[in-house]
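Appendix B. Chain record.
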Amino acid sequence: MYKSIFAGTVIALATAALASAAAITFSQNNYSFNKASDAALQSINIQVSGGEAVAGTDVYVQLGDGGADLGGGNTAPPFPKFTDLQVAAAGHVFTASDPQGPPTITNLAVIRSATTASGTHPATGILATAIIDISGAAPGTYQISLQNQTAGFQTDLLDATANPVPATLGTATITIAVPEPASALMLIGALPFLRRRRTA
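C-alpha cells predicted for this chain:
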C-alpha cells in the first residue's frame, strides 16, 4: 500500500512538472521560401510560453544534424545557412537593454547567450530570431531544431539562480522552392503583354 501511494505521488509530481514546463517552439511548423521571389536573408522567430521568471538564456538553433563541426554529415549547400541569431532585442523576452554575448556561428548551427540587466523577465513571447541565408540552398525540405543531444547542446532558460528552467523544445521544417520550368516560361511569355498593358 505504501509503495502504491509513493508511486502515485511520484507520478503526480512528474505530471505537475511537465504541466508547468515552459514550451520553446518555432513560430511556424513549416517555413516556405521561394528563391526566385523571396529575399536571400530570412528571419525565423523562436517563441517561448509558460511565463516562468527567467534571468538568462542559452539559445541554440540547428539545421539538419548540425554539420561536420558537430559530428554530423550535412553541409550548406544544399542546406541554407545561418548568418545571425538575435536574442536581446526590441520586442523580445530579453530586451535591447539586456546584455548578450556574441553569437557562435557555423553554417548549420548557432548559439548565443543573454541575461537580464537586473531581475527576471516572464518567459512569454519571442525568445530569439535566427537569420538564415537561402541563396545557396538547393530545393528541398530541411529540419530546424533547438538541440543536439549527441553534441550536448540545447536551448536553455535559466532562473534567478542560474539553474535551468524545465522546458520542452520544438522542431520545424524549412522548405526551399524554385519556380517550375513551365511556370517560369509562362511568366516570361507574359512579359510582353504586361509591357503593353503598362503603355496602353
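Further analysis of this model is presented in Appendix C.
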